[in-house]
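Quick one: Nitroreductase domain-containing protein from Agrobacterium fabrum, structure tokens please.
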Amino acid sequence: MTRHYDRLWEGRWPSASEFCRISRPNFIHAVRACRVVRNSATTGFALTGYCVGDPGLMLVLTENQEIELELPNEKSASRIMVAQLLAKRRTQYSLGKNIVLPDEEIDALIREAVRLSPSAFNSQSSRVVILHRDENQKLWDIVKSELSHIVEGEAKKHSFRKIDSFAAGAGAVLFFEDRNVIRILQDQWPLYADHFPDWSEQASGMAQLSVWIALAGIGIGASLQHYNPLVDAKIKRHWNIPDTWRLRAQMPFGSNEAPFPPKTIISDGDRFRSFFR
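--- reply ---
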């Protein structure tokens, strides 16, 4: 499907909000999150983005100020989109607060990503606390306070610089697993009782990946940190977290303030075994 808009802006590039006005409602998240990039296939610029429910979206702005909204073939686009989103998920330590989307929309996206994440026996054992702006700063103040008791000298300076980079972001996601859910499942299915803690960890990992990919898909950087159990007690007291929730990871997020370094990938021969009839 392609729609054309001729000469909407005379002699200037449109802003993200202006793109929103010409986009269909279900494209709005993709449009607001996209960035202007050089597209060698056109004589102008292209803006690309994705949103839940759409296999892919490209907006092309030519030098003649013409705009094309194009959806690729659904089957081919779904394969491309999954690979692209996974490739965009990278560790980002240089975070900022320069995000176009409102905090409420990011919050809603994180919640949806966790809701859609799989779990063994559909246990839905993952629990998430989302901290924005000043609340994010409080988290890393707690981490610094607890670390100061066990590190010193150059190690302390290095750790604090790293923590400051997380505090510079727009927010953080705290991932918990509810041990009460695990205990209930162990009582209901005693044959598998020993496995439910492992399956809970797998569910948490999938929720973490889902959120990370969702954030990467709208151009937000993130990383995964593990200051637990050092900070567990203070975090639970400060945000009134239930005792049955066990902290598993922290994901600071924000705008990407530095390019990603090249990623080293080990040989497929060391990693995969495929068998075909």
